[in-house]
């Protein structure tokens, strides 16, 4: 199963490395979109932060109640502490320090370490779940368009049935039944989020299957497998890339939403879990909720900018 999936990924991605001139052409067009370059730069920064960050930060699960609710560097708050000896509350001014540059939460955990851990979780969920959904959608969409007839009707009716279920409610149901683990969340999103990709790729495939190069390949005795993977999929690779880039933000938001409502993996400090814990202390420790919210906002915005830029770059009618 794993080997077969790897073969499919290699066949789908073959146009990316077999035609460097075409890749360079699209890259030059993408570079003209400044927002797309900003999005790509932020995504690269986020990937480096997720990979290298854990080597330079504290343990995100380390609890220290003596340093709880410390503000970020440059901010100061007043805390009321109960003194047992005097039986009175004393108010002290607490300032941020460079040991915890982004502050700490109500358990004294370092916010910078937690945000870096959350970045790693969001990227893993976004990339893996989107990859599963795009591969399934591509295979189903291309096969439906190429085979036609009863196969097309069966696959598209199944797709219609899947699309009738509200995506997020279906996720909640699956995670509720099988348990809130990260692997279950990734599989649930990947196995339910392919429907839109399948429909779009089928539409493109219907126009491609009647083209001269497909007819010529069949006339020369090419097998169905060769026609699909060497002629149809390479010609929808631009659509696949754009859909994948624009789908990742939705996956990241879905995982954050599941974590926020208490269905995330409790053993992994994701952005949604941090955001959920911070909503109870907005008056005393606003940064616990604000910081992961900013990270989610910037990440979703970056992927959307990049996706829009790639869509314009791949569109031959675009004037960029």
3D structure, described in words:
With 320 residues, the protein is mainly alpha-helical. The chain has 2 domains: 2-69 and 104-314, MetI-like (MetI-like fold, Orthogonal Bundle); 71-101, no CATH class. It contains 13 helices and 2 strands; from the N terminus they run αααββαααααααααα. The protein is elongated and about 95 Å long.
Secondary structure layout:
Elements: H1 2-18, H2 20-31, H3 34-52, E1 76-83, E2 88-95, H4 111-147, H5 149-164, H6 167-178, H7 182-192, H8 195-208, H9 212-219, H10 224-232, H11 237-260, H12 271-278, H13 287-314
Antiparallel strand pairs: 1-2
Helix pairs in contact: 2-13, 3-4, 3-13, 4-5, 4-7, 4-8, 4-11, 4-13, 5-8, 6-7, 9-10, 11-12, 11-13, 12-13
Computed Rg: 24 Å
Mean pLDDT: 83
Distance between the termini: 42 Å
CATH fold assignment of the largest domain:
MetI-like fold
Order of strands across the main sheet: 1-2
Number of helices: 13
Shape estimate: elongated
Biggest sheet, in brief? 2 strands, antiparallel
Tags for this model:
320 residues; mainly alpha; MetI-like fold; 2 domains; two-stranded antiparallel sheet; 5% strand
The gist of it:
This protein has 13 helices and two strands; from the N terminus they run H-H-H-E-E-H-H-H-H-H-H-H-H-H-H. It has helices at 2-18, 20-31, 34-52, 111-147, 149-164, 167-178, 182-192, 195-208, 212-219, 224-232, 237-260, 271-278, 287-314; strands at residues 76-83, 88-95.
């Amino acid at each position: 199963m794993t080997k077969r999936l790897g073969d499919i990924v290699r066949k789908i991605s073959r146009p990316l490395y077999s035609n460097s001139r075409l890749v360079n052409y699209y890259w030059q067009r993408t570079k003209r979109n400044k927002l797309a370059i900003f999005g790509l730069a932020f995504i690269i920064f986020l990937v480096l932060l997720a990979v290298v960050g854990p080597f330079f930060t504290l343990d995100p699960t380390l609890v220290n109640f003596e340093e709880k609710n410390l503000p970020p560097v440059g901010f100061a708050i007043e805390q009321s502490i109960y003194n047992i000896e005097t039986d009175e509350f004393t108010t002290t001014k607490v300032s941020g320090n460079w040991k915890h540059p982004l502050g700490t939460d109500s358990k004294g955990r370092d916010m910078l370490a937690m945000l870096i851990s959350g970045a790693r979780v969001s990227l893993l969920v976004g990339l893996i779940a989107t990859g599963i959904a795009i591969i399934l959608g591509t295979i189903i969409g291309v096969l439906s368009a190429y085979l036609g007839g009863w196969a097309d009707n069966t696959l598209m009716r199944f797709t219609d049935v899947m699309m009738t279920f509200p995506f997020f409610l279906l996720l909640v149901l699956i995670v509720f039944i099988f348990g809130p683990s990260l692997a279950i969340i990734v599989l649930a999103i990947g196995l339910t989020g392919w429907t839109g990709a399948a429909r779009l790729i089928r539409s493109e495939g219907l126009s491609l299957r009647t083209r001269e190069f497909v007819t010529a390949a069949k006339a020369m005795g090419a097998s169905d497998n060769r026609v699909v993977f060497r002629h149809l999929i390479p010609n929808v690779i631009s659509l696949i890339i754009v859909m994948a880039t624009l789908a990742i933000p939705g996956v990241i938001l879905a995982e954050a939403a599941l974590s926020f409502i208490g269905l995330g993996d409790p053993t992994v400090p994701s952005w949604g879990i941090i955001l959920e814990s911070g909503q109870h202390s907005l008056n005393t420790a606003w940064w616990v909720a604000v910081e992961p919210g900013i990270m989610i906002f910037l990440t979703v915005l970056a992927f959307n900018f990049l996706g829009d830029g790639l869509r314009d770059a791949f569109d031959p009618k675009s004037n960029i």
